[in-house]
Structure formats: C-alpha cells, structure tokens
Amino acid sequence: MAPSGSRNIKRNCQRVLYWIPVLFIWLIVAWSYYAYVVQLCIATVENMAEKIVYLLAYHVLFIMFVWAYWQTIFTKPLNPLKEFHLSHSDKELLEREDRGESQQEILRRLAKDLPIYTRTTSGAIRYCDRCYVVKPDRCHHCSVCDKCILKMDHHCPWVNNCVGFSNYKFFMLFLTYSLLYCLFVTATDLQYFIQFWTNGLPDTQAKFHIMFLFFAASMFSVSLASLFAYHCWLVCKNRSTLEVFRAPAFRHGTDKNGFSLGVSKNFRQVFGDEKKYWLLPVFTSLGDGCSFPTCLMNPDPEQPASPSGNAAIKSDGETHLFPAKPLRESQSRLLSNGLSWAESEGTGNKDCQGESDTICFNIWQGISQTQP
C-alpha cells in the first residue's frame, strides 16, 4: 500500500507542476491586457479615434487568441477506438507467448480487419504494450499523458496537453492569433515606446508597462513566427512533428510523403471543407483520427489488382500487395470533391512524385463499404 500511495502522491505533484507553464502564460496575457488597455490606450493615447480603433481591434484579437488557447488546452486528446483494443482473452494469449514472431502472428490476425497500413521500421504490427491496443495509423503513445493519442503531433508543455487529431486545428489557430496579437501590440506600441525612450513623454507609471510590453511582444513575435511557419509547412506536407523526425513506415518501406494528398487536400484535412469555420476554434477536421487516406507512388501498370481487390504496387523491384480496407464514412468526405486522388490541381499534387502516370489514391478500396 505504501509504494502505491507514494506513486499517487508523486503523480499528483507532477500534475500540479505541469500547469506551471500554462499559469505563466495566463499571467503574461493578463498583464499584457492591463498594460495595453489601461496604461497605453486609456492613460497614454490622447486621440479619441485612435483610442477607439486600437481598443476594438485589440479586443477582437484578444478574444480569438484566448478562445483558441482555451480550446487547445481543454480539448481532450482522442484515444484509439474500442475496436483497436485487445480483448481480455487476446491479452492473455499475447502474454503467454514468449517468442516475438508468435506475438506478431497474433497481432497480424487481430489487425487484418482494421483500417491500418503503417508498420514499424522492421515491418511489424504497431502495438502498444501499455495501452494494449493495435496502434492506428499516425497514433503514438505519449509518455506524459500515458495514453495512445490519435495523430499525435507532440506534447506541448505550454498548453499542458497533447497536440493531436482532436485539437491540432485549435493549436494552429492559437499560433495564428497569438502571433497576430503580438504583432499588433508591437506595431501600435512602437511610437509610444520611442517617445518614452527619447523622453518625449513625461515619466509616469505607464512608462514601465509600455516599454516592457514592447520588448515582450516583439520577442514573442519572433519565436511565434518561426513556430507558426514550421507548422504551416507541416500542414501543407500533411506531416506531424513526430513524422518529420521518423518518417512513417509502410509495407513498401518508409515514405515521408505517404499521407500527403496535395496542399489543398492537406489543408482541408485539418481545417475542414467549410470556409466559414476555418478561422473559428470549432472542430471541423475531416476523418475520425483512426484512418487516413494516403498517396501511393509509382504503381506498376503491368500488375493488375489482385482478385481479392488488393492493389499491387511495385517499389524497389518488388511487388507489394496493399490489403483492401473499407474506407470510413468520415474519410469519404475528403473524397467527395473528386473521383480520385489523381486530380490535376497544379501545385496541389506536388507531393505525389513521379511521371504523368503517378496516381494518388486511397489505400483502402471499396469506398461504399463504410464502417460504423
């Protein structure tokens, strides 16, 4: 009992410590609100029209920034669906097997009807022995949350949450509005910062707040700009941070562009089809987080599809069969605007490399056979 109690105390202490970075950000935001609204706009800006414009624009950005940040923090990361979890009997069967090959045979049997295609770098079924789940594509185990997270990007200490399928759009909007917020504060504060710096304005209580506000906003702008640009690149390439460091492995080998469908479709996979919701922190991402369409390169024109419906792809001199998996209903939305992934959209398919016969298509055949 004592070791268990000490572990619980340690875990609770860690949970409290994890909120320190978030508390720090909220304190900075609260102080910046006071410094900008009270000390700059109300106490320093004399022109009434300028004051009104500043306050209106500031509050729009402030509300959107806080809304997106709140959604990123408190949106619970999604875990694999029940069908990916091992039953009690399967767990016992797996634990009784000592040999890795025997365990893989069991996992292959369990995974044959699941919509998964990625493998480990050695070609094995991706399995989490802590959560007892066959990992869906792009799913990873977070050591901080101690859970498997769908389409995990990274665990962010500044939001004390995993950034993944359920909140990646919110995280992108958080970066967008926080960057705009800092740039707006820096731009509107600049002239008064210069006046205080050159003693053009009398020394008042506002001097410290205005000068420090400029330094803080400008420094945050630089760091946020680099992070925002990096994640924009990830969205355009349809990659996660983890996939940049380790490319997803398919049955034909690793492929860093395996999930890229072209810039337009990559963007819509995160932000959805309805443009009116793109800038709002509401969930509109396409799919269910467990299955993803992919882009397969260089199909062998001389190799027909197998009688069972499998698509045959030739890569590095070998022919690989890709099992036909039913496409989930949530993924078929991404296909609704075209008959195939071979859509000629100019730059839209730059990630699908090869000659004119390169075809982008979903690895799971039978779109009409949707799963519940």
Automatic annotation (TrEMBL):
The gene is ZDHHC2. PANTHER family: PALMITOYLTRANSFERASE ZDHHC16 (PTHR12246). Keywords: Acyltransferase, Membrane, Transferase, Transmembrane, Transmembrane helix. Its EC number is 2.3.1.225. The keyword Membrane applies. Residues 125-244 form the Palmitoyltransferase DHHC domain. GO terms for cellular component: membrane. It catalyses: L-cysteinyl-[protein] + hexadecanoyl-CoA = S-hexadecanoyl-L-cysteinyl-[protein] + CoA. This is Palmitoyltransferase. It is a multi-pass membrane protein. GO terms for molecular function: protein-cysteine S-palmitoyltransferase activity. It is found in: Membrane. Pfam families: DHHC. The lineage of its organism: Eukaryota, Metazoa, Chordata, Craniata, Vertebrata. The DHHC domain is required for palmitoyltransferase activity. Its main location: membrane. The chain crosses the membrane at residues 16-36, 52-70, 170-188, 208-230. Belongs to the DHHC palmitoyltransferase family.
